[in-house]
Amino acid sequence: MGVILSGDALLTLKTLPPEYAHTCVTSPPYYGLRDYGVKGQLGLEKTVDEYIENLVEVFREVWRVLRPDGTLWLNIGDSYATRSGPQAPTNTRNSNGHTEKRVPAGYKYKDLIGIPWALAFALRADGWHLRDDIIWHKTNAMPEAVTDRPTRAHEYIFLLSKEPRYYYDADAIAEPCGKKGNARSFRGGWAYTGHTSFDNDAESDRETHGNAENERGTRNKRDVWSVATAQFKEAHYATFPPELIRPCILAGCPVGGMVIDPFFGSGTTGEVALQEERDFTGIELNPEYIAIAERRIKATEEKGIQLKMWNCRAAQTT
Questions:
Q1: N or C, which end of the chain has less CB nearby within 10 Å?
Q2: What distance in Å separates the CA atoms of residue 44 and residue 114, rounded to the nearest whole number?
Q3: What Å distances lie between residue 302 and 46, 59, 158, 243, 307, CA to CA?
Q4: For residues 158 and 227, what is the distance between their CA atoms, to the nearest angstrom?
Q5: DSSP 8-state class, residue 300
């Protein structure tokens, strides 16, 4: 079952009961990127610190609504300290262009701000366990007209948890691999084993020190994910690809469990959750994107999946 809640992420999260969801998979608006034309949107703060503080407050509520063994999978991109006027959109299907750019206080012109790690460290300081930095390698990254640095072709997905031990289904996202060995493998103590199996799973490694063939044909998923950016026909810029978040949902939530996304956008999290037989709750501030998500997810109704549309604005004002 799917539920879309219309409203501000922080206020709407406060209406949900504690320990409501198994996992959160989300991508908040990036700092200083676009004006989506909705009052109360995140990403247009005057300072980086204010942006980070606002997101920490949102994810503090995510913490509350997650089960004790819950996880947060957070996709976030970086920004540069630069100067430019507002730019109209080049995609005529969307009326939201780039915001006006100013160098934020405390940064030098052309600095890479480091938004992802600033947010990750702030969340860690707020109580989250920072478990992994997953690299989203964009196989079809957008070209950049720069001549003094490489073109950026990656973003981060941070895996965070409430507790040191949490629900994580490694088998659900295990990677296929061959049986042959590889001399690059190393084990504890930073000692290379030399000409041993790179593809062995953990159990085989323990039992044979990497010297046996991997009969299972799978290995633990690595933390560099090569996925092409999404091509979505409707009017939403920040659509992350379904195959990027599918492993997050499979590993972070059991079948029949609840996935939440407080920045629902065009509904990718909900679509993948339903495809994988999980329930979802999405929160979105922009009515235009809610309409897009509703159309997108209702296409799954022919498979017997139910979708409820809830409007929580009245609840937020009481």
A1: C
A2: 17
A3: 45, 34, 34, 22, 11
A4: 16
A5: T
For residue 84, what are the β-bridge partners? 101
Sorted by where each begins, the domain ranges of the chain are: 2-174+221-316, 175-220
Mean pLDDT rounded to a whole number for the chain: 82
pLDDT at 98 over 90: no
Name, in order, each residue with C-beta under 8 angstroms of 129's C-beta and a sequence gap of 6 or more: 160, 161, 162, 163, 164, 166
Q: Are strands 218-219 and 175-176 parallel, antiparallel or unpaired?
A: antiparallel
* Phi, psi (deg, nearest 5) at residue 130: -85, 105
Q: Please name the residue that has the structure tokens 């052309």.
A: 110
The domain 2-174+221-316 is placed in CATH, from the list 3.20.20.70, 3.30.750.24, 3.40.640.10, 3.40.50.150, at 3.40.50.150
Give the closest residue to 274 by CA, choosing from 300, 294, 240, 295: 300
pLDDT band at 46 (very low <50, low <70, confident <90, very high): confident
Angle at CA of residue 56, ends 52 and 60, nearest 5°: 175
Q: Please determine, for residue 293, whether its predicted confidence score (pLDDT) is greater than 60.
A: yes
CA separation, residue 22 to residues 62, 125, 264 (Å): 11, 22, 17
Averaged over 32-37, what is the pLDDT?
Answer: 68
> What sign does the dihedral 57-62-68-71 (CA atoms) show?
negative
pLDDT tops 80 at residue 58 = yes
**Helices 268-275 and 242-252: crossing angle, nearest 10°?**
60
Residue whose structure tokens are 């300081």: 125
| Residue tagged 């997101």 (tokens) | 55
DSSP code of residue 259: E
Q: What is the pLDDT of residue 187?
A: 46
Nearest Cα neighbor of 271 from 219, 313, 236 is 236
> Which residues does residue 66 pair with via DSSP β-bridges, in sequence order?
21
pTM above 0.90, yes or no: no
Three-class SS of residue 315?
helix
